[in-house]
TrEMBL record:
InterPro entries: RNaseH-like_sf (IPR012337), YqgF (IPR005227), YqgF/RNaseH-like_dom (IPR006641), YqgF/RNaseH-like_dom_sf (IPR037027). The gene is ruvX. CDD domains: YqgF. Coiled coil: none annotated. SMART domains: YqgFc. Could be a nuclease involved in processing of the 5'-end of pre-16S rRNA. This is Putative pre-16S rRNA nuclease. HAMAP family: Nuclease_YqgF. Pfam families: RuvX. Belongs to the YqgF HJR family. Residues 21-120 form the YqgF/RNase H-like domain. It comes from Variovorax ginsengisoli. Keywords: Cytoplasm, Hydrolase, Nuclease, Ribosome biogenesis.
């Protein structure tokens, strides 16, 4: 199985420094962005309120979450087709990750998030976006040494 923290299929992700303990994860969507917080010690994630905004309004809410949680790094779920091929939402999520890096000057790790929403819905999630962000973050945390 490939490393879930790969920013793209051809370039390995930089290692996550051991002193990075707290993370904020995002399940990017055009209208809604799921959010979860978590830490390396417990290797678990907690859903946060989903951001229901676009453009600058979305980034204002992201900034408020970063101020509140003070994460060491950010994690973004990147969707792919079942066969691993990229699609329009893949590129949109990667663009969102680049924008986070540029705006907030924090490390951003990308995680292959195929099936996270399906898993969240199968688990009976009330807020599938926040539950997906938890699944993405917990997958990332499990990949850490």
């Amino acid at each position: 199985m490939s490393d879930p923290a790969m920013p793209d299929r051809n370039m390995p992700s930089p290692p996550v420094p051991a002193h990075f303990q707290s993370f904020l994860a995002f399940d990017y969507g055009q209208k809604r962005t799921g959010v979860a917080s978590g830490n390396r010690l417990l290797r678990s994630a907690t859903p946060q309120a989903t951001i229901k905004a676009e453009g600058d309004a979305r980034f204002a809410q992201v900034e408020a979450r970063i101020r509140e949680w003070q994460p060491d790094a950010l994690v973004v779920g990147v969707p792919y087709h079942p066969d691993g091929a990229p699609h329009d939402n893949t590129r949109a999520a990667q663009r969102f990750a680049r924008q986070l890096r540029g705006r907030f000057r924090l490390p951003v790790y990308e995680v292959d998030e195929r099936y996270s929403t399906t898993e969240a819905l199968a688990g009976g999630a009330r807020d599938a976006d926040a539950a997906s962000a938890c699944i993405i973050l917990e997958q990332f945390l499990r990949s850490l040494p």
